[in-house]
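pasting for the record
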Amino acid sequence: MDIVIEAVAVPVVDSSQPGEARRAAIAMAKQLGFDEAILGRVAVVATEAATNIVKHGEGGEVLLRPLQDDGGECGIELLALDRGPGMANLAESRLDGVSRSGTAGTGLGAIVRMADVHDIYSSPGHGTALLARIWQTRRSMPRRSPLAVGGVSVATTGETVCGDGWAVTPDASGACILVTDGLGHGPDAAEASREAVRIFRMRAAEGPVAVLRFAHDALRSTRGAAVAVADIDCESGVITFAGVGNVAGTILADTGRRNMVSHNGTLGHAARTFAEFTYPWASTALVVLNSDGLVSHWSLDAYPGIASHDASLIAAILYRDFTRGRDDATVVVAKRASG
């Protein structure tokens, strides 16, 4: 059964708000059916991550997203983002008892112990981004796809639901990814995006253009949406892409940056052209799909080594540093899975 719990963004700018992040994380974990022992781990990770933002990061936010794997196992993904001074020595900062601010210095060490998966990207002067995932059990699931896909989707200020959406259907050769941006924002935009995601889950195997055509018909009773679909085949080394509207698709390869082609229009209302384009896929490339909540001139050039990190962490850093701040924002990143 698909998860219907909304992702949550919690601002963390003062000492009272780590408690809000903890309560939001526990509420989500309870909705997912976590037992008391796992709830305790979630509480520690959320508290320590948010407290670090206040003490060391000069404020930021915590993003929470429900997860579900192919076997039905549920989990929580937490991203803690700040624009503070960053960490000069990340390896040292992971150790318990190491602190530059006079505290006990157990925050990162506790997160590393409690999380099933963790990742951190930090550099002096550019802030810190931390990822932690906690699952219902610590069992290891076999990987279904050679791709790792992660993303963030955050509602604009003042809205309780995000008008954007995204989804991924993995397979043995890669994955098909959709990003949708409902017209405007709020519940009506979210309704359009949910319908686009529903059609995608039913029709992804038929290819990107088929998804767009079926979604165009299904969205006629909604506000409509901009939608892009990228089908990445690692075996053939090809990306098949189709888009209508202002959802952008970008390939970042060793040879440079390439923007994928979308056509003008809004699915559900005015969409005249449905066409697929193919692009070469290299195992070292990143694929980024994003709504227009991100500025168009974003770049990862100033982030050395970022491509080796978790796909969700990369997406979160793009959101943190390049969001327009006045619209829903969604960023999804796909990369070759490690290991």
